[in-house]
Amino acid sequence: MSLRVLGLDGLDAILVIPAAAAAVLAVIPSYRIGARINVLAALLTLLASLSLLLPDRPEPGRYLFVDDLNVVFIVLTTFIGLTTSVFSATYIAHELEIGRLTPQYLRFYHAMYQVLMFAMNLALAASNIGLMWVAIEMATLTTILMVGIYRTHEAVEAAWKYFILASVGIALALFGTILVYLAAQPVIGPGVDAMVWTYLVEAAARFDPALLNAAFIFLLLGYGTKVGLAPLHAWLPDAHAEGPTPISAVLSGLLLNVALYAVLRFKMLLAANANAIAPGPLMVTMGLVSLLFAAFMLYRRRDIKRMFAYSSIEHMGIITFAFGMGGPLANFAGLLHMTMHSLTKSAIFYSVGHIAQIKGTQRMAEIRGLTETHPVLGWGLVLAVFAIAGMPPFGIFLSEFLLVSTTFAREPLLAIPLLIGLLVAFGALLLRLGGIAFGEPVGSTKPAEASYVPLYAHLLLVLGAGLYLPPLLVSWFQHVAGLLG
After folding, report:
1. CA 371 – CA 379 distance, rounded (Å)
2. What is the pLDDT of residue 3?
3. Which residue ranges in the chain fall short of pLDDT 50?
4. What does the buried/exposed string (b/e) look like for 446-474 if buried means 16 or more CB atoms within 10 Å of the residue's CB?
5. Cα–Cα distance for residue pair 157/148, rounded to 1 Å
6. Domain ranges of the chain
7. In this structure, are residues 264 and 478 in contact, taking their beta carbons and an 8 Å threshold?
């Protein structure tokens, strides 16, 4: 028997719970009740996702399925969705107190948060490539609305920029999806079956390779826009800088992964067709370009949230490079790095969000000496930056070490730009951290009204992964790495 949550199996529950919660939150007038319902819904969704780890999984259907690959993304998404909802409760309460948000906008925020969780879970659980495209578009539109929630000139401009660039990306992804359907139709037959993952993978070897090649290029460009890969990244720094910080945490920690998941699925299709182009070199190229571009751009940032947005571009480049390299070790490193980056970057935004509220600014020149004025937040940021910079003994050091090792062994010339990007980004982050954490204190010294549990829970997980990876997790990631080819 599968674990039941509210009378539903786990696959149904990860969709029904956030959808029902969104409807309830849209009409709840009390902020406190709304925040608690938001956290409760996120907790129930996480419990439902954990049931998918059990051997007795729901049977795959034409529209929904769960396998060893998407369950990694689903569990990670629902866990960070829970911790972000806890962080969001205190963060958004402060925004209400200072008048940046009205009670009406708070209802909208909480409802949209659960709509976003629904859309991301649907994209990950969809067995139909058309449904997955619709779900990613829904998640994108939801975050666009949330980025502009402050209704300032800068926030609205950032939301419009996000909308325009995301629309281009989603149009390219739609065209690529149609090309995959056209490649599958002569082999599988017309109708829904020609859009179902399980049927597509089984029959991919007989698809027209020319159509598959064209489809993957459009899909990589389209979904690559959502991943934030350079030169398709321009929406990401503005969205981070102007939107609510919990949405920055969700964007960097989750939504970028959802778009990357779509790319990986289509990469598996090409890998199953011997006559199609190898998708690896395209992904390696875009990954390295993103890593190097973002690493150098880190030195020019003055806004703390914008700086960590470029850090997200850098790390998505590293992850894309790893999956582009392929093979058991590189794929394992990519999975581990994706998980560690999601946990670490969301932790960074948890600390940065409260710091910006205390100081009343996001300009790094006006944020100094945090370890002296606010030691819990300041040292939390220090540890998180050490982790994201790849310092031992945190988990990102392990994933980067594995990736550099396998790259040196297989393609030594590619290891050179990879190491240059990693070292340049490392230097930029530590340079900025020095003044923010240890400089002469400036700005407000009022005590923080913050929840530190999400921040330090993530840091403990990232530290624990660097010190010891449980054999069960290692075998799970090894199996998924084998599936990715």
Report:
1. 6
2. 45
3. 1-6
4. eebebbbebbbbbbebbbebbeeeeeeee
5. 8
6. 278-485
7. no
